[in-house]
Amino acid sequence: MPYFDKDGQRTVEPHPTNIRPQDSAVQEYVSLLERFGVCSGCRGEPWAVWSGSNMEAKQYPLLMVTWGTLVRSVYIAAERGAGNDMVQATLEMGL
Questions:
Q1: Radius of gyration (Cα) for the chain, nearest Å?
Q2: Could you tell me which of 16, 29, 30, 66 has the fewest CB atoms within 10 Å of its CB?
Q3: Smallest Cα–Cα separation from 31: which of 80, 93, 66?
Q4: Tell me: the pLDDT tens digits for 45-60?
Q5: Cis preceding-peptide flag for 2 (omega within 30 of 0)
Q6: 80: phi then psi, degrees, rounded to nearest 5
Q7: Among 10, 76, 17, 74, residue whose Cα is nearest residue 43
Q8: Which residues pair with 74 in a beta bridge?
Q9: 51 has which bridge partners?
Q10: What residues contact residue 88 under an 8 Å CB cut-off, 6+ apart?
Q11: pLDDT tens, N- to C-terminus, the chain (95 residues)
């Protein structure tokens, strides 16, 4: 699952119940992403649900039930470090 669709729109965002006021954690994750990327297999699995009131419509963005803080950090790192190899590898790997 890519972080961005073919039009450059975000494909995931934190579920409303998974948005925590952890700005310092988000910034720390951004720093770690820039240095190491997302280390696959070192975290729990990402879980998401479809957004929208009609689940059969399967509307994007997916709402992340887990990984909310990390997903916020990935998007910040993507905006901030377009030339960073670790950020690019994370984006290419997707979820």
A1: 13
A2: 16
A3: 80
A4: 899 998 876 666 777 8
A5: no
A6: -85, -35
A7: 74
A8: none
A9: 59
A10: 82
A11: 899 999 999 999 999 988 888 889 999 999 999 999 998 778 788 999 988 766 667 778 999 999 999 999 999 999 987 789 999 999 999 98
